[in-house]
Amino acid sequence: MTNLKGKDILHGNQFSKKDIEAIIKVTSNFEKELKKKDSLTLLKGKILATLFYEPSTRTRLSFETAMQRLGGGVISMGSVESSSVAKGETLMDTVRTVSQYADVIVIRHPRTGSAREAADAVPIPVINAGDGTGQHPTQALLDIYTIQKELGSLKNLTISMIGDLKNGRTVHALAELLSLFKIRLYFVSPSSLRMPEEIINHLKQKGIEIEETEDMLKASNASNLIYMTRIQKERFTDLSKYEKLKGSYIINEEFLKKLKKKMTILHPLPRVDEITPEVDTYSGAAYFRQVRNGVFVRMALLSMVFGRTP
Ligand code: NCD
Fold first, then answer.
1. Which atom of ligand 1 lies closest to the CA of 59?
2. Rounded to the nearest whole angstrom, what is the distance from the C-alpha of residue 138 to the centroid of ligand 1?
3. Is residue 206 a contact partner of residue 185, using CB atoms and an 8 Å limit?
4. What does each of the 310 residues of the chain score in pLDDT, given as a tens digit?
5. How far is the CA of 11 from the centre of ligand 1 (A)?
6. Superfamily designation of domain 12-135+294-305
7. What residues are in contact with ligand 1 under a 6 Å CB criterion?
């Protein structure tokens, strides 16, 4: 069994294929367990702290749900405005303080690399729930779990990642994880929002076939799965540029009609206008099932970090 005990979860590239397989297995067990029981007692007595310096709905609530379903407790800093961050406290001082109360910290922060800095400053495990435009490894793990579940396998797939590939931390982490499998990737984005060179080079070194294009339909029709993303408005210093780019790629009923076969569609959410609500009833639209998987995956990760898997 993979040893995540006492480890930080910071980056997509920290996992091996064996790790992923182990996480999928533990996740799937928890998914089955929760069909039988509402909650477990594996993490009774442990406390998780959530420190979110950026907005979140799914990541924070699913971590809190996961911890509570495992019988553990949760404390939360709440919004930045309601904490000592508003008085000017540094990130390091805040995480050092919180490590005196909690057994694990889940952190989201606008600066790339901040989760690693936090992890270096405290003795308890730190889980990166998004560091600026950097990484979002637990989202990528739930994406992988969802892909495996929806398509039955992670082998020989072609996946189109569409949207803001420059600023989207979920696609950065997911691309790293997918590179462990024999996979082909289409990166579909406006030219100013391409996947960072550093990630492309790393994937190519690992022998992953990549095609960059602006043509969403062509890429989608050559793929088994579409991973749609939001244009990350909060990363633009010039909002007029965002206004020009938003709406670059939209999945709507008209687009679905042009697809040659049934397509699985994922999105980390929140969506803005890139998937219209009429698509939600399409059988391949898996993004709300993906949301649910987030709880199971985070239960698996927490139980593994504490070395208390069933
Ligand atoms: C993503 C994020 O915060 O990076 N959301 C999430 O965690 N599910 C994606 C996004 O905000 O676009």
1. 7
2. 11
3. no
4. 568 999 999 999 999 999 999 999 999 999 999 999 999 999 999 999 999 999 999 999 999 999 999 999 999 998 888 888 889 999 999 999 999 999 999 999 999 999 999 999 999 999 999 999 999 999 999 999 999 999 999 999 999 999 999 999 999 999 999 999 989 999 999 999 999 999 999 999 999 999 999 999 999 999 999 999 999 999 999 999 999 999 999 999 999 999 999 999 999 999 999 999 999 999 999 999 999 999 999 999 999 999 999 8
5. 15
6. Aspartate/ornithine carbamoyltransferase (3.40.50.1370)
7. 58-59, 130, 136, 139, 169-170, 230, 268-270
Burial (Cβ within 10 Å: 0-12, 13-18, ≥19) of residue 98 = buried
Encoding tokens for residue 86? 């508003």
Q: For tokens 């999945």, what's the residue?
A: 251
Paired tokens of 187: 């990166």
Sequence-ordered alpha helix ranges (H) in 44-168: 58-69, 91-98, 114-121, 137-151
Q: Do domains 12-135+294-305 and 137-290 have the same CATH topology?
A: yes
Burial of 78 (C-beta count, 10 Å sphere; 0-12/13-18/19+)? exposed
- Ligand 1 centre to CA of 147 (Å) is 17
> Which fold, 137-290?
Rossmann fold (3.40.50)
Ligand 1: centre distance to CA 247 (Å): 18
Residue nearest to atom 1 of ligand 1 (CA): 268
Predicted model pTM:
0.97
Q: Where are the domains of the chain?
A: 12-135+294-305, 137-290
CA of 269 to the centre of ligand 1 (A): 6
Ligand 1 atom 12: residue of nearest CA? 230
Under 8 Å between Cβ of 230 and 287: no
